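Friendly challenge for the regulars: who can give me the structure tokens for this chain first? No prize, just bragging rights.
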Amino acid sequence: MKYINAIKQAMQNLAKQDNTVFIGYNILYGSRAYGTLNDIPENMCIETPIAENLMVGLAIGMSLEGYRPVLFIERHDFILNALDGIVNHLDKIESMSEKQFKTPVIIRAAIGAKEPLYPGPQHVQDFSSAIKEMLNFPVIDLKSTKDVIEGFKKASTLNSPVLLIEKRDLYDTE
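First reply, four minutes later:
Bragging rights claimed.
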């Protein structure tokens, strides 16, 4: 199975859960998350402006209301814009509330592909190591199709946040 097909299958499995909602930009229009949400009903997708910190806040709020948001950050580089919400809020809500509140947010952050057309240095950066140091919840590198399958399976069962790092250069690999 190709890496991208494993992601598509994971999205379809998540969509079977009544409380799942997909959040991000280019998820309802444009590339539909690089084609990984093509088979997801449009009524399960919330298209946002390019405002990553806002998207994290929306995901947090929806998770507090019983949803399992799947937040798609199209370019890993721009996760930097979301770090306030991720590090200071999403990562801390459970401990700040003395475990009263849970935020089962799944974040998909894609590291840009260098081929077939190099998009420039600001679209292919990888901040995974630094982000892992900042967060108490799982940050999973998806380095293979097997990692995709296992990572999304784990994410779908957690009652806490998880960040899954996709590699666009691997989408067409087995």
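Strands lie at 20-24, 45-47, 68-73, 106-111, 139-141, 162-167. The longest helix spans residues 3-15. Your move, everyone else.
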